[in-house]
Amino acid sequence: MRTLIVDHPLTATLLTTLRDERTTNPAFRAALRDLTGLLIYEALRDAPVATFPVTTPVAVAQGTRLSHPPLLVPVLRAGLGMVEAASALVPQSRVGFVGIARDEDSHQPVPYMESLPRDLSGVPVFVLDPMLATGGSMLHTLDRLRARGAADITAICVLSAPEGIAALRDSDHPVRLVTAVVDSGLNADAYIVPGLGDAGDRQFGPR
Ligand code: URA
Questions:
Q1: pTM for this prediction
Q2: What's the 198 CA to ligand 1 centre distance in angstroms?
Q3: Boundaries of each Phosphoribosyltransferase domain copy (predicted)?
Q4: What is the CATH number of the domain that holds 65?
Q5: How far is the CA of 187 from the centre of ligand 1 (A)?
């Protein structure tokens, strides 16, 4: 599996804000939005483009657009905080949704919602989930996307655990990972260490 770690002074400072337990919910959402923009920027670095003429107030110049804007798929709830930044940078993108809760005892994913285009053959897909922990939610999402024909999938995750990376690598899914950092591992509750806590609670408050 191809893995791109976006290591940059700006991603590092935004990560610091996300990690800090004193960061308020609004400040956390703002940092997640900004960091998502940087990850999307890098994820699209080699995206194919088409050119077309664009008329400036002075002359005709060469315009550029993405040939295949990715479908954006936030994994609810935590991935919601990544959609605004991603769709601001790629406004042509469609957005699909997958809802997955987590069983706090077994740590297994509990899917509760799916709203995706019927046919994803030939469509690049960006899955937005801030935390790649055990990989269970991501693998479920990849299964659902593959069932609809997706064959070009990028997981955009702010923090990743080695366990989640291994789970993706050991699957047969055609997935690439773009992440800001790989942390040490998981604790007994399947939280990423040192991590940032519960990414949904940090954005929206505790349930
Ligand atoms: N989900 C979270 O929100 N945080 C973790 O550390 C792991 C999974």
A1: 0.97
A2: 5
A3: 6-205
A4: 3.40.50.2020
A5: 10
- Enumerate residues 6+ apart whose C-beta is below 8 A from 66: 44, 47, 48, 49, 50, 90, 92
pLDDT band at 105 (very low <50, low <70, confident <90, very high): confident
pLDDT of 104 strictly over 90:
no
Compute the average pLDDT of residues 81-89.
Answer: 98
User: CA separation (Å) from 190 to 21, 70, 169?
Assistant: 18, 30, 19
Q: Tell me, in angstroms, the distance from the centre of ligand 1 to residue 36's CA.
A: 17
Domain that residue 107 falls in: 2-204
What is the predicted ipTM? Answer: 0.96
Q: Is the shortest distance between the CB of 138 and ligand 1 below 6 Å?
A: no
Residue nearest to atom 7 of ligand 1 (CA): 191
Closest alpha carbon to 181 in 161, 151, 201, 154: 161
Label residue 162 by pLDDT band (50, 70, 90): very high
Q: Which residue has a Cα nearest atom 4 of ligand 1?
A: 198
